[in-house]
Amino acid sequence: MSFFTNRQLKLAYEFVEYTGRNVFLTGKAGTGKTTFLQNITKTTTKRNIVVAPTGVAAINAGGVTIHSFFQIAPGLFIPGMKTETSEDEQNAQLRVSKVKIDIIRSLDLLIIDEVSMVRADLLDAIDNVLRRYRNNSKPFGGVQLLLIGDLQQLAPVVKEDEREILEKYYQSTYFFGSNALRQTDYVSIELTEVYRQSDQNFISLLNSVRDNRLTTSDIEKLNARYQPQILDNYDKGYITLTTHNNQAKLINDKQLKKLNRASEMFTAEVSGDFPETSYPTEYNLDLKIGAQVMFVKNDPSPEKLFYNGKIGEVVDIEEDVVFVKCQDQEEVLAVTELTWENNRYSIDQETKEITEQVIGTFKQIPLKLAWAITIHKSQGLTFDKVVIDAQAAFAHGQVYVALSRCTSLEGLILSSPINTYGIKTDSSIISFNNEISRNQPDSNQLKQAQLEFQIELLHDLFDFSSIRKNAYQLQKTIQNNHTILSSTLPEKTENFINVLNNNFYDVGQKFNNEILRHTQKLTSSVEESELIQGRIKKAVAYFQPKMENELIQFIETIDISSDNKQVSKMLSDVKTKIEWDLQIKNDSMLSCASGFDVKLFMQAKAKAAIESPSDRRKKSMRVGKIKVKENEESENPELYEQLRQWREIAADNLNVPLYAILPNKSIVQISNYLPANIAALRKIHGIGKIKAEKFGIDIISIVEEYCANNNLRPQYEKTEKIEFEPKKKKISTKQISYDMFKQGLTVEEIATDRGLVISTILGHLISYVETGEISADELIHEDKIKLISDFISSNFFESIGEIKRALSNSVEYSDIRVVIAHLKYKSNGKT
Asked: Do 128 and 239 have their domain in common?
């Protein structure tokens, strides 16, 4: 079966691969849905994951369960209902790991298998998680869905008390009742070519059962397979399909007990995380010679001697081998242990691609007793000979699933006559399926959807609405809390918004309108239009440099620090949203510098969504320094930042709020006044005797070191009374940092181990650069050494601050200090 030999499969593949439309792929049993799933995950260029509603379905599909990946709690999801639970508590309940958040942020395609078992509210719960972590208000956070399943097969489980509640919010409890899905223009593609059965009369009969169109003639044909006289003596190879697990177990135990043979027990080997509910066969597998068994895994060898669902008989058993004879094969198969994997999705740190990581394995003989299995576990399997009790308590769709497991009418035996009352159908399903059949998409709709997808990508790229919305939120929060923030922050934010509106939002709107006009005349794709490609290149040339210089630079350096942790968190959260949006736009635009290519564009966008802006800034430097924030009220912003970092560490260690250590205004005063003894420190507003005794040594040490490294004169005050004596140093603190560095520890590791800030450790190590004991390129990249050295040799300056302002964000203060120490070492005639 190939995408390109089956018209419907080819159409489904192209809608998934080349458009952004959500796709529901359905079809009768045996039409190739499972095979399509296996192929699409191997061939699509889109970043995808596969989820399923149950553990067994997830293992079979090579994916994970919906609840485990999205961390959705059991129970109902009521759309729009607000609880008293705080947002922080909700986040804690979700427990979505950083890896999963990275996957969600960078996801292009979400594949849901066996979607017939997914309730509408569960699909809306998925939508809620995707919107939240992608910071995207579009349905499903803008992720494309591929939904695979047959609604005439197994239905979602809905208890009566749950149904009463859900019916108030949903037109249907089936997945297509999802409020989020109903907001999208999804396409439904029905596969009609049946591969499992070749008998057209039997296929027609199954269709009548599926669509609740059974005639008297159809009932007679089916009941002709009711043959009670042979039920106790039917040939080997028949498998009974039951509605419940205990029924299947009773039949299997009874048949196994009849065999007058010794029993052999095979115990599975389980490692890592592999839930018992996902076991593909028994943990303790009890077999006898003569037992009827079913293979529960495809043969991984090139010979492909067996497949999942193949029936056979055990003819011999050795220590770790079971010999099975199947009716359609002369050769006896030697069956040994095989391994199932329980995977989870992760991000490859080098390629940034979504990969599967094995977290658990289940190793066992790939067989199970097969005189009977449940209809639920038979879904997706094919049998030549089947026994069905048509008067059992079947749920919706179960009769059709049971009948359609068989390859032919001749291989079917009914243990009781069938009647129309036993075939439960749902009128909403029939109506929905009829609508699908009447509205199958064609190649023209595919072409239009492909163009719409490309236009949407471009529109999002040059649309600054989301950044604008968050910028106004930032401004509002600043205005509401201006008394505890920097006095110039409101004005700076106002200027930022004006630049954003005039240079980006307004221009972006005009450009998108222009692109829309051009695309209305298109007869091909955006990628093939020279006119539009030329306009895209010019737009990127305009927006991208301005975005870096006018937006990204501002938002990276704006100081939103506050003593109030709640306000600080609110500002930090919205600032991060703006930074992330700008980062994604910047990288996406760079991918279009030479023209718009959908594949390259989506790769760039996905990778930009994974790495947080703060992590990216750290990676851009040889050592992971925290970026200096320019504060208009501080004359020494680097010292100001060092003191803020020290305050955070002290507050964490003592488990107290930031202001309990030092108010923000006190830090500003310290960075300006440069107190070098207790008397001078006591002159700072907010520092009394107790705080001076408690934190004085730490603060003075940071100030003195900063002054020494920057040729500044600290302030001393005369005192008649010695407040307290500093502890005598047993060993130089610089020497300790140097020794740890030479032992192979990084700057960050030394800082963490010693409980000091990174800039302090760098100050220790820089003194050894001046003596030549540490090479400058051990601390910073050679490119930065050359950049700073060239500037110093060709320019006159009076302070390090002048160098920093001239070189802007390309270097840090510590970088400059490293190079100055390096040049001093060289000027002494040493190399």
From this structure: no
